[in-house]
Amino acid sequence: VSGTSSTEEVVQNEARRLWR
After folding, report:
1. Given phi > 0 = left and psi -120 to 50 = alpha, else beta, which region is 6?
2. Quick check: 2 pLDDT over 80?
3. What is the DSSP string of 1-20?
4. What is the pTM of this model?
């Protein structure tokens, strides 16, 4: 995970993968 995406986007992305 680079530092290009915002923290909010990273959190939502991880949440969607964990809440598959």
Report:
1. beta
2. no
3. --SSS-HHHHHHHHHHHHT-
4. 0.28
